[in-house]
Design a protein that fits this description.
Beta-Lactamase; Alpha-Beta Plaits; TIM Barrel; 8-stranded mixed barrel
């Protein structure tokens, strides 16, 4: 039998290994030499398992690790957690094929600071064409990425509060809806601050900005993590989130929480500031299927809150949309009416209480629709104010009223209501000047009636406007006295010539509280040396009581309803005059010259 044995076959690979080693050494030397002059280049080499075998000085500097701490460590030591698995999976697949990979990577330094590098990873292939190591060349792009992040943040966030802006909250809400809520329901709360403009006017815009920041902080704290909080602009905010979030209150309950939270005082520039909030609420899918739909519906609910007196919350109801659609229909008709001249003026006499003789007449606009007949002001004035059509309508009223009044007897005054919007626009003085010059009416025969609403904002500018009108010779009347919270302040702060007691107090003159308000108004007027008018008088008993209380002028259905100019002239006995030019201040050209002379332009 033959004996057993072991046969060994060896192949000398010394030269191959030496060649690889020399190649690696040569490669490293080449890299060091090539990039030594470029301090921004970061070089690292790892083996196929990802362990670092080489790190240049820039790598050590940016990572915060010494070379000794890096060598032998896996490259995952620098993992930031910013990237998802997909990026690294694609990277490894590319490198395994022997291909070069390039991309932007965020790493974490030893101190925890994140830094970004534009990276090119090149596989170093062995004799069989398989990777035996990987060389990574990186350029620090942290500054650029941080600048991009700041720009991205600025594009998506409100600069003052740091909250999401309108476009960003809509985009994020859409993404949230696509991912789905536990029961498929989302809620939008639209928040508007009540009284914010008053804070800006009294304490300044810096205080207003500080207040907005504090409001944003309160909303963040209330909403919690499941909700998106945004500032949509001005003093309007939005809170959007899942209606069934267990960690935060939802829907109407949350609206109530917002209202209650905003009533708590704010500390702004060493002042205790009190405001309130109005909240409109809409649900998905009940009221809409997109963030844009829900914001519109919540806005309608918010408008309803404000119309009801503010400082509250409302859930959207279909009737709100119906009201808006009806308003749009009226708006279309109003525009047509303005173009066709369908409006006319009626006049209601204002009597001297002592003599019961007519001393003035108030111009009141009426809309004579070709199909619907005479439309009362309550049906179109609110729409005109809300849509801005009150501006051209007010101009028409002032111009035509002055033209009509120029034909009245010289002692007759004209009273014209001025819209708050018209007053705030800033061109009221120019409008009045033009109407007086064109009509020839003396400025001393014109009374402008202004409500408190026109005085709530920009009081310094309004006071300047008042003084210019006073210098012109126009009389100023505070209308609806007693209905506002600061009527007395306005009478003392602004140069009014007359105050007009609101009809609600006149109707309740028999009640103790109403008579007390009227008595106080009369005493105030007498103390300031101005006259007082009571409007809405319907009975002789009301008239007798008001006369005994010291009211100077009276107006109401007891004496006359508003009537067209022809009926007013007939009731006052003006129709027997030979010509219109003899009834008033003279012929148009003469009246114009006289009015210009009476305006004392040098004092305006």
């Amino acid at each position: 039998m033959g004996g057993g044995g072991l046969v060994e076959i060896h192949r000398d690979i010394t030269n191959e290994r030496l060649a690889e080693e020399r190649a690696n050494i040569a490669m490293q030397a080449l890299l060091e030499k090539q990039y030594a002059i470029d301090q921004a280049v970061i070089v690292a080499i790892t083996d196929v398992k990802g362990h670092i075998t080489y790190a240049n000085d820039n790598f050590c500097r940016i990572s915060g690790y010494s070379r000794e701490e890096l060598i032998g460590q896996n490259h995952r030591l620098l993992k930031s957690g910013v990237h998802g698995r997909e990026l690294f999976r694609d990277m490894y697949r590319c490198l395994a094929k022997g291909q070069v990979w390039r991309g932007e990577i965020c790493n974490r330094s030893k101190s925890g600071r994140l830094y970004w590098v534009d990276t090119v990873i090149t596989p170093q292939l062995g004799p069989e064409g398989k990777p035996i190591s990987y060389m990574a060349i990186r350029v620090d792009i942290t500054a650029r990425k941080e600048a991009e992040a700041k720009l991205s943040f600025a594009a998506r966030h409100d600069a003052l509060t740091g909250l999401l802006n309108r476009s960003a909250v809509v985009a994020e809400a859409k993404a949230a809806w696509q991912s789905g809520a536990p029961d498929g329901r989302f809620v939008v709360q639209l928040v508007d601050l009540d009284g914010f403009k008053g804070i800006n006017d009294t304490l300044g815009h810096n205080a207003g900005d500080d207040l907005l920041k504090q409001v944003a902080s309160r909303l963040r704290a209330l909403a919690g993590k499941p909700y998106l909080v945004a500032r949509l602009g001005g003093d309007e905010f939005a809170v959007i989130g899942p209606a069934s979030a267990s960690s935060s209150p939802s829907g109407v309950c949350f609206g109530q929480l917002i209202v209650e939270a905003m009533t708590q005082p704010f500390e702004v520039h060493h002042h205790k500031v009190n405001i309130s909030a109005s909240v409109g609420i809409a649900y998905c899918p009940d009221h809409g299927s997109t963030p844009e739909d829900l914001l519109k519906k919540a806005d309608l609910a918010l408008y309803d809150v404000k119309a009801a007196g503010r400082n509250g919350y409302r859930l959207y109801q279909p009737r709100m949309l119906e009201a808006v659609e009806a308003e749009k229909a009226v708006e279309v008709k109003l525009r047509t009416a303005l173009a066709r001249g369908e409006f006319e003026l009626h006049y209601q006499p204002i009597l001297d209480v002592a003599t019961r003789s007519t001393r003035a007449a108030e111009a009141l606009v009426r809309w004579r629709h070709p199909a619907d007949g005479l439309i009362p002001p309550a049906d179109f004035i609110p729409v005109a104010e809300h849509t801005g059509l009150i501006l051209p309508l007010s101009e028409w009223i002032i111009e035509h009223a002055c033209r009509d009044a120029a034909s009245w007897p010289g002692g007759m005054q004209l009273a014209v209501n001025v819209s708050a919007i018209q007053f705030k626009r800033g061109n009221l003085f120019d409008l009045v000047m033009r109407a007086l010059l064109q009509s020839g009416l003396s400025p001393h025969r014109l009374q402008l009636e202004v409500t408190e609403t026109a005085l709530l904002e920009h009081q310094a500018e309004q006071l300047h406007m008042f003084r210019k009108l006073k210098n012109l010779g126009v009389a100023l009347v505070l209308d609806d006295f007693g209905t506002g919270y600061s009527s007395v302040n306005y009478v003392t702060d602004f140069p009014f010539d007359k105050i007009k007691i609101d009809r609600s107090f006149v109707q309740g003159v028999h009640r103790r509280e109403c008579s007390a308000v009227i008595a106080s108004a009369v005493a105030l007027a007498k103390g300031l040396g101005i006259t007082i008018t009571a409007e809405g008088i319907e009975t002789e008993e009301q008239f007798d009581l008001l006369r005994s209380m010291g009211v100077d002028f009276a107006q109401g259905y007891l004496f006359s309803r508003p009537v067209p100019l022809e009926k007013l002239a007939a009731s006052q006995g003006w129709v027997e005059a030979p010509a219109a030019s003899m009834l008033g201040d003279g012929a148009p050209a003469l009246r114009t010259r006289r009015a210009a002379r009476n305006m004392r332009l040098d004092t305006v």
